[in-house]
Amino acid sequence: MHPWRERLNRWFTPVARRLPLSPNTITLIALCLNLVAAVLLLLGTRHPALFLVAMIFVAIGGFADALDGVVARLQQKETRFGDFLDHICDRISDTALAAFWMIGNRVRETLVVAAVIVIMLNGYIGTQIEATFRERNYESLGRGEFVLALVVFPIVSFILFSNLLLVFALIGIVQRIVVAQRMERS
Fold this sequence. Notes:
The protein is an all-alpha fold and 186 residues long. The chain has a single domain, classed as Four Helix Bundle (Hemerythrin (Met), subunit A). Helix content is 83%, strand content 0%. The protein is globular, with a radius of gyration of 17 Å. It starts with a helix and ends with a helix.
């Protein structure tokens, strides 16, 4: 996803320079978009049109989540609180989207709980790598890939089956452990 991060930066730069909203406001807007999408995913199995609208909200929320960082850097408004808020909103968004999607698809309760735990652990480990090694690492399955998965997997499951996020998050955890070990050695 790292090449896409650079492309998004280029695409968002003209907008980010003139945007009157603060990065934290954009972060909160992204959270709200994702929470609306989560509710729509919950209702989407009974009303397929809502499922399609949810996918639009997830995509727009994902772009807004990327935009907040670009705005912060370009307008020189980066703060530790903004980074903290972004991480919290990401965890809330990830959890709500995944849980509501699975609950809406009537996934067994134990699998929903397991998936939410693994998704939260994956996010925590990514944040912990940043805190421990004092640098962001985009080599493993990270937030960008997770947002993409939140668009692709529900569509695939809508057509085929559920529970792909559990496997996806587990792969992310293994990758992040390997990255942390490599960073420790260097």
